[in-house]
Write a structure and sequence with these properties.
- This protein is α/β, with parallel strands linked by helices.
- It has 16 helices and eight strands.
- It has an eight-stranded mixed β-sheet, with helices on both faces.
- β7, α7 and β8 form a beta-alpha-beta unit.
- The radius of gyration is 20 Å and the shape is globular.
- The mean pLDDT is 94.
Length: 330
Amino acid sequence: MTPHQHIAVLGAGAWGTALANIAARAGRAVTLWSRDPLLAAALAETRQNPKLPGIPLAGGVTITAAIDAAAEADVVLLVVPAQALRSIAATLAPQLRPQTPVIACAKGIEHGTRLFMTDVIAETLPQAVPAILSGPSFAADVARGLPTAVTLAALDDALAGTLARALGGPTFRLYHSNDVRGVEIGGAAKNVLAIAAGIVNGRRLGASAAAALITRGFAELTRFGRALGARPETLTGLSGLGDLILTCATAQSRNFSLGIALGKGLTLSQAQAGGKLVEGVFTAPVLIEMASEHAVDMPIAAAVAAVLQGRLDIDAAIESLLTRPFRSEA
């Protein structure tokens, strides 16, 4: 029998609901947890998340607001924003069984601690086995069963493979890896670069500028990844280059959409008026601090951080990039 028959998904947003459907389609029993009892009750009654209109919850998904019910699962997916992952993990900690795989499904770096998501899991859930799921994927595409491919990484490559087989299916292809840090770096850095790509779009700087931005942004991501020990094939894979391409190409990306709004002249508060969480806003300053500590040159990401912090306006940021000294591309 395939291991990991019971999957818990903590977080009933669009992405959590999509992953719950994926696990159910793979034949697993799924517990979808919401910290909001009212939302849990509504989902149980309607079998549809308003964030994914027209897409019903799969029959194998049970809804709960009780964390102890989720803690009984063979595998736990933490599908909450990066800055909320610690608090949810701490809530789970007293109930979690030893050696349970806990998969982070958020892309970011924790403020203050500068920890990646699997490090937060290791610190708050020392009895767990941390893993990370990341790659080019939008919740609506995944929930609808459109073809998607992502990466699942754990330090134990055999475990990563087993988890990938437990969650994967015909339309949700999971590649496995033991380069945990490389997968996490791609997911975090691409959010910041997507804001830059959105600014280029919002300023109507043209397709040529957009292509240059993505290419040079990927060079920054690669330099940062190498400095922190990521493998080249991970950075050029789904969780690195693949996710960067997707996030910099469509307004479905919250980071790209925020950049478009900034490029059109909106302030950061105006651009965030819709209330949707944009991970790149939190990640940008931390990414630049870490890059500086490792002597990694990331001018595009630095310009984004400066714009978000109000230290540069858009035009000055663009000029700072265009007037950089000519240099070798190598």
